[in-house]
């Protein structure tokens, strides 16, 4: 067993942990990072990156299929396309490999010691690392312990994961072959991003959502175009339905019933696979976290605005600290903790944490929605600009959706942005920057936006809120 003394010990090499370690290395803090799987965590290996790669591949396939069915108004026609899913997955895996390899190189450059194995907490200042066979390979002692252990998918007791018929997003991102029929339980981020992807790849998809609408985390107006698209794609949707049983035997399936109505008729749905995507939970088990007796917030580790836990010099960031479980939040927290440990004064008090759902069309929310702003006591101005009035959207043949701005009525300070439409994920930087810089409607309305771009819709939304949009 090797003993390591280090100033900062990071548990987990996901976006939270690896960013904390890189920044700590830049600041000259002696840092060790323990990771049991591949560097990059959920995000790079089995989350953000592979899902977006498959979303792109599926979008390209669907586009070519549209051309092949002679429906393209651009006058392009093709033979019926074919998909080699093994090649698609290999392409996705190559992107993952390049990125995770890059993380390793960045950590090496900052002289971060990476230890591969499963960390088991001994106390707030020491951790044992076990190899695959369970033997302890390292004892690491530290001044600061940073928990960046991430999250795991929520399992439904009635429908436990078996890696084959009942799967999580992890298996759905690496299929050896595509099922003919897929049932998706959960119409949230993962259920819809991957449900749409599978449908575009030719799979018959049924989505079961317990709430009365899809993507309940976003406001109803924003998600309406996504629901319309699901219908056009032929995705069957059961809203306000609950899974009450699993179908056993050949294939897979579920029994469902309208939520809260025990007398309603049970519907049996059959498929080749069931993808369960009903949320993720902080990973707090299996590494003796409980021995630290940290104050928890539900299933998550409670932290203050500096990511300090209830134990001195024990910090926590990212998904292990709960919602919103997003990679960019984990990264921002990781960077901040490294700076605080180096002696800088920092607090995690962002004006906004952007949320982007990579459905078709994409959905973006930054800051407050109109209802949230009103609930917070603001009198608000809101305005929408439709992509149907934007020249670039027309030339991209993607005119569905809109951009909406929310601002204070008294002084025009911007409180939030929402958008739905093709490519709106790429506009999010403008939304986030305007909010972090405390912009007013006039700042955005008087900024010259390049023509022809989708970004002009941002300026037009601000102009419209001021009462003088130019193109509607
Ligand atoms: P993780 O990325 O989960 O990393 C934690 C790491 O810790 C893991 O590598 C794990 O192996 C390691 N670990 C845990 N315990 C131990 C231990 N005891 N010993 C050693 N190693 C340990 N977010 C977005 O912002 N945008 C997206 O588009 C997006 N898409 C997603 C798509 C999917 C399918 C999924 C599942 C998630 C997606 N997310 C997305 C969420 C995002 O992946 C997470 O918010 C992010 O990865 C959290 O980072 P983290 O560092 O907190 O934890
Ligand atoms: P989610 O919370 O986004 O969606 C879960 C959905 O399942 C909800 O709509 C919920 O109402 C529904 N649900 C819950 N229990 C159910 C049941 N028994 N039957 C039917 N429906 C049920 O969770 P997710 O899609 O699993 O994603 C997990 C997390 O991963 C997200 O919350 C997000 O933090 C992260 N993520 C982010 C992105 C992104 O940023 N683009 C993409 C994927 C995942």
Automatic annotation (TrEMBL):
Its cofactor is FAD. One of its GO terms (biological process) is 2-oxoglutarate metabolic process. Coiled coil: none annotated. SUPFAM superfamilies: FAD/NAD(P)-binding domain, FAD/NAD-linked reductases, dimerisation (C-terminal) domain. Disulfide bonds join 43-48. Residues 353-462 form the Pyridine nucleotide-disulphide oxidoreductase dimerisation domain. FAD binds at residues 52, 319, 325-328. It is an enzyme of class 1 (oxidoreductase). Keywords: Disulfide bond, FAD, Flavoprotein, NAD, Nucleotide-binding, Oxidoreductase, Redox-active center. Its EC number is 1.8.1.4. Residues 7-334 form the FAD/NAD(P)-binding domain. The active site is a redox-active disulfide bond. NCBIfam families: lipoamide_DH. This is Dihydrolipoyl dehydrogenase. It comes from Lampropedia puyangensis. The gene is lpdA.
